[in-house]
Amino acid sequence: MIRVVLPHHLRTLARVGDEVQLDVNNPTVRSVLDALEAKYPMLQGTIRDHGTLKRRPMVRFFVCGEDLSLESPDTPLPDAIGNGSEPFFVMGAIAGG
Amino acid sequence: MSGVRVLVGTRKGAFILTSDGKREKWDVSGPHFAGWEMYHLKASPADPNRIYASQTSGWFGQIIQRSDDGGKTWFQPGLSPGEPTTTPEGMPKGESNKFAYDVSPETGKPLTTHMWYDGTQHPWEFKRVWHLEPSLTDPNHVYAGVEDAALFESKNGGQTWRELSALRGHPTGAYWAPGAGGMCLHTILLDPKNPQRIYIAISAAGAFRTDDGGKSWKPINRGLHSQYIPDPNAEVGHCVHHIAMHPQRPSVLFMQKHWDIMRSDDAGDSWREVSGNLPTDFGFPIDIHAHEPDTIYVVPIKSDSEHFPLDGKLRVYRSRTGGNEWEELTSGLPQKDCYVNVLRDAMSVDSLDSCGIYFGTTGGQVYASRDGGDTWDAIVRDLPAVLSVEAQTLK
Question: How far is A76 from chain B (nearest CA, A)?
Fold first, then answer.
């Protein structure tokens, strides 16, 4: 069971609380986002571009205190993500007011 | 019982202002979609409770929202409340926020480049929907004007979108350039007497018209003169801010250009300046009285570099002669220390017997006049910066 923490605006859009839970085996950034968008289709295009599936420029991914935004989306995520002891963070970059 | 609903898009959410036909007391609901930029909301003329809204964010992109009950509840088209969010095969249905430029060999044009601020070529990149224009007859048919400039349409209530790519593929596309607000298609006018005719305007490319439902487009900028571009009389490149059309006389158009108020009596084939005695002819919005096709309204501001009213006095100007002769309207509007702006889609009219005029400011006020502009009151004063105002007359 994977725990995903979304930024405030995407929580309201998906009508979810602080965390969402997903079932993903051998998680990677790509497979977590695929599962997230399958469960909450209203998030399609908000984290990754529709056509290219590239991360939107002002969205970042953090795992166990590390920024994975620039890593390959197919890099395996740590065990702590896979067993749900740590959440996968989707964050909006800090910019503007 | 008649009434008015005013749909207000702001930098931090949407608000819906409603009143009965007297327009003296207003109910304010919102913020809807709090914290999101709401570029535009507009209701279907064919179904007044059908409202489309453009919800957008520099972080999270474009969302289309729809209400089928006059703004009480909202959903993303294709995802009505309680409906499964995936098809029986497990495929996601959330397509309504997908605006993909058409590059198919059969219908599309190669996704080429347009002019960038520095004169170099720059690829087309979708950013947001600036304007939604529902069909005059079919609530499920709606057009979207987007940045980077292109026209999309949906025929299934906003669930899926298709680009009318002949516009972006026009041979002049490489010479279109962004204005200060981006390269946006901000104006869509549907001719009520000719369903095949649509006018659009792009900042900074100019105005275009199709007479075949979007299969082909022609620039309609003859007579526009812009000193800030290399060829002041060029076919494209003009920074058109907004265009207004009266439904009873759809071949007469009024334009607020970057500078200059312009008028066309031949469906845009030629334009002449009607700025007349205005103290400044820079501005963004322009609109027309619901019952008097020659009565037009503008809100002039000081200049292209100082986007606020001249002398700190917020003044609407009205011409009852189709331009050239303008009178200032000040009653009820702040006449000192006022430095707000009124953006291009932030003025609208209702069609009650005594025409109501509405406009919103970047300072968060929405002003209304119940008497064609003679006097004004603020319906609300402290909203986030207003991006768009659409008045809807409820019968």
Answer: 25
Which range of residues forms the domain containing residue B243?
Answer: 3-394
**Angle at CA of residue B167, ends B162 and B172, nearest 5°:** 150
Encode pLDDT of B120-140 as tens digits: 899 998 999 999 999 999 999
For residue A74, list its beta bridge partners: none
pLDDT average, residue stretch B323-332:
98
**Candidate from B36, B61, B93 with C-beta closest to A56:** B61
Q: Do B63 and A13 touch (CB under 8 A)?
A: yes
Distance (Å, rounded) from C-alpha B30 to C-alpha B72? 10
Spatial CB neighbours of A52, under 8 Å, sequence gap ≥ 6: none
Numbers of helices and strands, H then E, in chain B? 0, 29
Query: CA nearest B79 in A: which residue?
Result: A42
What is the number of other CB atoms lying within 10 angstroms of the CB of residue B101? 21
Q: Looking at the complex, does the CB of residue A43 fall below 8 Å from at least one CB of chain B?
A: yes
How many distinct structural domains can be found in chain B? 1
Contact A91, A60 (CB under 8 A): yes
CB B296 within 8 Å of CB B286? yes
For residue B177, cis peptide bond before it (omega within 30 degrees of 0): no
Nearest CA in chain B to A46: B60
User: In this complex, which of A13, A41, A58 lies closest to B92 when CB atoms are compared?
Assistant: A41
Widest Cα–Cα separation across chain A: 38
Q: Which two tokens stand for residue B377?
A: 């009151």
Give, in degrees to the nearest 5, the angle at Cα B71 between B101 and B79. Answer: 50
pLDDT tens string B181-230: 899 999 999 999 999 999 999 998 999 999 999 999 999 999 999 887 77
Q: Is the CB of residue B295 less than 8 Å from the CB of residue B372?
A: yes
- Predicted pLDDT at B87: 56
What CATH number did the domain enclosing B15 receive? Answer: 2.130.10.10
Instruction: Judge whether A47 and A90 are in contact, CB under 8 Å.
Output: yes
Alpha carbon of residue A72 to chain centroid:
14
* Residues of chain B contacting A, Cβ within 8 Å: 33-36, 57-63, 76, 79, 85-86, 90, 92-95, 97-100
Chain A hits for B36, Cβ within 8 Å: 9
Q: What is the CATH number of domain A2-92?
A: 3.10.20.30
For testing contact with chain B, the best of A46, A55, A94 (most B CBs within 10 A) = A46
